[in-house]
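note to self: dont lose this again. the chain is below, predicted strucutre after it. 97 aa total, dont forget to put it in the shared folder this time
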Amino acid sequence: MSILVLSVVLIAGLLLMTIFTKDLRRALETSHSVEAFYAADSAMEWQLYNTLRGSIISGPSMTNNTSFDCQNNYSTLGNIQCIGIASNIRRGIEVNF
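---
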């Protein structure tokens, strides 16, 4: 009987730990998501400035361990795509002309 009760308590504890771990991970990833979005936004502003002004200036420097990846397809497809990367979270912005 005691083994049965301990097994139920162990299963309930593992179930609660799984739920709380997912919530904790989601809470931590929220801040990375915001950082990734703002990195993509900064990169998009840089690409728009270069495209519309016809000049080439160096890209934004990210000081908060974020990065970005941009594809400027303005001349062929009429769009610009930028993806901000923070930790393992990616958020993207696309502008179509």
